[in-house]
Amino acid sequence: MKVLLINGSPNAKGCTYTALSEVAKALEENGVETEIAQLGGKPVRGCIGCNGCAGKERCVFDDDVTNEMIAKMESADGLIIGSPVYFASPNGNLMSMLDRMFYAGKCFAHKPAAAVASARRAGTTVTLDDISKYFGIRQMPVVSSTYWNMVHGSKPEDVLKDEEGMQTMRNLGKNMAWLLKCIESGKQNGIVVPDAETGSRTNFIR
After folding, report:
1. Can you give the pLDDT at residue 186?
2. Where are the domains positioned within the chain?
3. Theoretical Cys-Cys bridge with 60: which of 4, 52, 98, 145, CB 3.0 to 4.6 Å?
């Protein structure tokens, strides 16, 4: 079993990374392999709605990390997405990548997922809400912890002092590992994932 943790910060070893590392440590201690993948600081294209990814499971634009993240997700059993708070919401580059990743990729259904937010002060709940919407549309069970998945601090040393935040990260890792093991046990005992109905697509004038 493996969990992909996406660091949606341009800072490779900043506050978001510190939080995700605590989650990863708890996962590893519970027998789950982890990979922390870095979004980086280079520009990321937004989705233009061209539908060129249809049938390809890759975005037609291959000049940033989006397709790399899709490939990593294909071999993962769970997903955790972390973001710093920018103006009370997630990093824009991360959201642009997630739009394309979740639209083009077909590797998400029934894989547990969670969002993590890092902030100096406020904006964490909006950030968690924005990221979690991707999970709901792709049939991903959302993993909880003992508080909302957020840490606070202006630098990694501050985050490490956020005792409840670090505790929340550890409990998130433990809960993710537990759910992954439950899913694996279910598979071994003949419990199959449900077939989703996909035929109906309507809008608000029908």
Report:
1. 97
2. 2-188
3. 52
